[in-house]
Amino acid sequence: IGRPSENPKPAVWLDGGNHAREWPAFHVAVYFIEQLVGKYQVDEKITAYVDSLDIYVFPVLNPDGFIYSRTSTKSLIRQWRKNRAPSNCTGSVAYLKDICCEGVDLNRNYDL
């Protein structure tokens, strides 16, 4: 979201839904988009932000986990936080199955 410019502008990144179970984060990101688009040229501050920034909004970083967390009323599924990437567990010890379960916790994988 932004206005074309000949010169580089500062960028803002907003994402929601790193963790599948944090449902409001998705909706906040969509609401943010709606506010920027709906109030552009109506609200002075929003117009200034859109004109002076390049705004990147990624509402759902974890769509497969988000969908999975809403498929059941069971607490274990409703509280799912990772994506649904298959695991490569090969351990034969029983407790390893609890440690090495499906998915990746996305916010543990940023190179910052």
Task: Give a verbal description of the structure.
By secondary structure, this protein is mostly helical. The protein has one domain. It contains five helices and two strands. It has a two-stranded parallel ribbon with strand order 1-2. The chain is elongated and about 60 Å long. The protein starts with 10 loop residues before the first strand and ends in a 13-residue tail after the last helix.
The first-to-last residue Cα distance is 24 Å
Q: How many helices?
A: 5
Total domain modules = 1
Series of H and E elements: EHHEHHH
**Beta-strand level of the residues, as a percent range?**
5-15%
The secondary-structure class comes to mainly alpha
Helix % is: 25-40%
Short description:
InterPro entries: Peptidase_M14. The protein has 5 helices and 2 strands, in the order E-H-H-E-H-H-H.
Question: What is the topology?
Answer:
Blueprint: E1 11-15, H1 23-38, H2 44-52, E2 54-58, H3 63-69, H4 75-78, H5 94-99
Parallel strand pairs: 1-2
List keywords for this structure.
112 residues; two-stranded parallel ribbon; 5 helices
